[in-house]
Give the backbone structure.
Amino acid sequence: MSLKEIFYGIQDFTEAVLFAPFNALRSLELENWWGANVMSWVFTLIGFVAFVYWMKELKKFNDNNEEDRTQISHSFLGKDSDLSRS
């Protein structure tokens, strides 16, 4: 068995098995727009749920004052900046 046959086997497996659901959705493209874009809607929904969860977690940590806010990125952003002392 050569290395070339291994790569062709991986190609055949990927196209025939892993991409089969996407090929089925592609056939719906001309018939039903919503059906053809169902994967896009699913990924959009997952992203939206993850965003809402992350914002709720950030609010929880912000409300508990668990974040160390003593460091500032630039001196002109903080209350004790060098510019305000002069």
